[in-house]
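Progress note, sequence design subtask.
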């Protein structure tokens, strides 16, 4: 077995690409902020209304309370739900360790076309 290939497969197995898409004012940036707070990237989630979110950083976005430009952010997400499943009766049956994490690559998108 090729060690470089095995390492790449392991890296990809722990990678999650997430795009948040929804209508304007549906809470996309709020969900992004909550995920960042739960992952420990920020101490507390920012608020669109307060203009202090991580992904809405343009002055116009903060003033208007909307996402104008898509923003990408990458962070580690702890494997919080590492519990036995129907097919896996114990964590030893899975490829994931109890303290494993995944790398989330998230895109927060605007809710409007212009």
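Output:
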């Amino acid at each position: 077995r090729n060690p470089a290939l095995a390492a790449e497969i392991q890296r990809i197995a722990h990678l999650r690409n997430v795009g948040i898409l929804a209508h304007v004012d549906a809470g996309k940036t709020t969900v992004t902020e909550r995920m960042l707070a739960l992952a420990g990237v920020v101490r507390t989630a920012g608020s669109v209304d307060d203009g202090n979110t991580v992904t809405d950083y343009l002055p116009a976005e903060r003033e208007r309370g909307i996402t104008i430009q898509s923003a990408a952010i990458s962070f580690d997400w702890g494997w919080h739900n590492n519990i036995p499943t129907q097919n896996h009766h114990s964590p030893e049956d899975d490829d994931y360790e109890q303290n494993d994490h995944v790398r989330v690559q998230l895109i927060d998108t605007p809710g409007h076309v212009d």
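The radius of gyration is 17 Å. Work on this subtask will continue into the next period as scheduled.
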